Amino acid sequence: MATREFRKSDKLADVCYDIRGPVLDKARQMEEDGQRIIKLNIGNLAVFGFDPPDEIVQDMIRNLAGAAGYTDSKGLFAPRKSVQHYTQEKGISGVEIDDVFIGNGASELIAMSMNALLNNGDEVLLPAPDYPLYTAAVSLSGGRPVHYMCDEQSDWLPDLDDMRRKITPNTKALVVINPNNPTGALYPREFLLELVEIARRHQLIVFADEIYDKTLYDGNVHTSIASLADDVLFITFNGLSKNYRSCGYRAGWMVVSGDKRHARDYIEGLGMLASMRLCANTPGQLAIQTALGGYQSIKDLVAPGGRLTRQRDLAYELLSQIPGVSVVKPKAALYMFPRLDPKVYPIVDDQQFAFDLLAQERVLIVQGTGFNWPRPDHFRLVFLPNADDLADAVGRIARFLDRMRRQQVSAA
């Protein structure tokens, strides 16, 4: 009798998450062999010395003894109330405490929101480049991810005409990632109003990812898209991972706002899924109220001369000096998405490019196609390492690209 082979589900056929993909696996193997890798692949702040505010840590420690039990499936009252107050600060009207769901990071809630909504064949508009969790969550929920292009020449704002062309009778929702990962773009209020009008005209749900809404440079201000209308349904995601340097606490939230009258069944579905996972982790929930109500130390990091601002500026300047490399200076978040001129670097397989850079220079980046960008001419760089390591890493990238240019000249 033949041995039965167990294979992964067919539902994973269109799922990729190259931020933690095969190139990272190779980097881990190299580290096990004793090599030091400079990791520019993931926004994991703690490993680069960005600590959470001490008051959050102390609050969790003091309350940990009482955190062993399950909470309400949507979360503890106090953190949900603090999120409700935060939506009021952001100008989002009509949010009740029952509209707030606490999750194990925003990631869990993103997947939950798609699972509750999508039937097989339903379409969701996603940005290209995107944060790949969205494409994966739509696919796993039986939906079809449809990517609208973002325009590098317009500071990575979405191409509204391309978005409109891709709307069909099967389109149910529009995902807006603002501030944007991986590009560092920040969408102005006037542009967000145009997105709202598209959602209104086509009766789409707007999923708004605002996890970097305080990580803003050069005095820029963030506008929550859900604050701009009450006749469109909005699902807004946020959390402690980035603004409060608390990735491992897995404390995020989801807020339902806007026109909820015609979405009662969907909201009931969200409640069902929240109950099925019992509750979010209680220690992480205990950090939310203190974080939102305490001193906002992120402002120091993004102020002129702050550590994040200095490192953004350094990475931007060094990358811009490399022949054939261009990059839009990020207005927000922790990333930049440089372009490699195909005439100078005729890359066919950008995952192989990332492998070669890792093997030769021990620098780990994520290739642009890992963010559902359609061409092999970009990569994402995280500017979290301290200035010395960052300068070293970009110097290694420059050296690698110099060899590529020389090889092209020799082959010509």
Structural summary, described in words:
The chain contains 14 helices and 15 strands. It is an alpha/beta fold and 412 residues long. A hairpin with a 5-residue loop joins strand 4 (144-151) and strand 5. The longest helix is centred in the C-terminal third of the chain and has 25 residues, at 387-411. It is globular.
Q: Keyphrases for this structure?
A:
three-stranded antiparallel β-sheet; 16% strand; 14 helices; globular; alpha/beta
**Helical percent range?**
25-40%
> How many helices?
14
Could you describe the largest sheet, including whether it forms a barrel?
8 strands, mixed
Q: How is the largest sheet built, in terms of strand order?
A: 2-9-8-7-6-3-4-5
Rounded radius of gyration (Å): 22 Å
* Helix/strand order: HEHHEHEHEEHEHEEEHHHHHEEEHEEEH
What is the end-to-end distance? 58 Å
Mean pLDDT: 94
Secondary structure tally: strands:
15
Query: pLDDT under 50 segments (min length 5)?
Result: none
Percent of residues in beta strands: 15-25%
- Specify the overall morphology: globular
Which structural class fits the helix and strand makeup? alpha/beta
